[in-house]
Design a protein that fits this description.
Length: 292
């Protein structure tokens, strides 16, 4: 997958999200058609109710759209002593594998709805979470899929201290999301330079750093920041995208660069307008870096 062939799409860039009440949800047929119109060949799956739940039907839907599946975002309550996350993970592995995907992007879910609040874990809960990450990695590997932990605002693993705790206490790889790392108080460039061998998936979005800092400080809820446009098309914000690409290329990164600009929609945009215009700008910007 050299150069621009590494660029993939994600439904959240069209405002499609698993959080209840997250704005207007565009239908799958339109989102997939616009992905193909922009020249994408691969996508993440989006929330569970966005595309068919059964793996073979999902594969057929994407084949009609001339897209292949990467995998998908999978929130798991990994510190749950009952271990209920295993059934959720197993379902994701079965679905993504049957549809031709090779990745499970895991978030350490709090068990609460949405990403505006979070809770701290006890030492025992952290030990359970770290062990669960290793078990999830092994379960995915046994099925021929790659696991990635996605540090994400409003989850247990949000900021640099939690990322470091996972890096030291688990062997799970990371999904580097430039927006969530920044809004969680971290530095995505530093993470790419410090742990490049641990990164096997990338979510690229640009960020308005001032608003992201207010999210990290707890001054602005995450959902309000997204509504206000904290995430921007690549090249329109404050993230040093070329530096991240350079750090990953130095270790021969060969995974996907997924364009994932979280947005909220208030209504259906006109045809050939709306989120696809931002995605097109991001795709052109990133392709110019990867092909240089």
């Amino acid at each position: 997958m050299p150069g621009a062939d590494q660029i993939a799409a994600a439904p959240i860039s069209w405002g499609v999200c698993e959080v209840p009440g997250w704005g207007y949800q565009l239908p799958g047929a339109r989102v997939l058609a616009e992905m193909r119109q922009l020249g994408f060949t691969a996508t993440e799956a989006g929330p569970d109710d966005f595309l068919p739940a059964e793996g073979r039907e999902l594969a057929e839907t994407l084949e009609i759209a001339k897209l292949t599946l990467i995998g998908g975002f999978t929130p798991l309550v990994l510190h749950d002593p009952a271990g209920g996350w295993r059934s959720t993970l197993n379902a994701a592995i079965e679905r993504f594998g049957a549809a031709g995907g090779n990745s499970v992007i895991i978030a350490a879910d709090t068990g609460q709805s949405g990403y505006d609040t979070r809770s701290d874990l006890s030492a025992d809960e952290w030990a359970r979470l770290l062990a669960a990450l290793d078990e999830a990695t092994a379960r995915c590997a046994d099925a021929g899929l790659r696991a990635s932990l996605h540090p994400h605002v409003g989850t247990i693993v949000e900021g640099p201290d939690e990322v470091a705790r996972v890096a030291d206490g688990s062997r799970v790889a990371f999904c580097l999301d430039t927006g969530h790392i920044t809004a969680g108080g971290g530095d995505p460039v530093a993470l790419a330079r410090d742990l490049p061998e641990r990164i096997n998936h990338v979510h690229f979005k640009d960020v308005e750093a001032g608003l992201a800092a207010r999210v990290a400080a707890g001054e602005v809820p995450y959902s309000d920041a997204v509504r206000a446009g904290v995430f921007r098309p690549l090249g329109d914000g404050d993230v040093d995208i070329p530096a991240i690409v350079a750090a990953l290329r130095a270790v021969n990164y060969s995974g996907w660069y997924v364009l994932e600009q979280d947005v909220m929609l208030s209504a259906a945009p006109p045809e050939d307008a709306g989120p696809m215009l931002d995605v097109a700008r991001s795709k052109e910007y990133l392709a110019s870096i990867l092909d240089s």
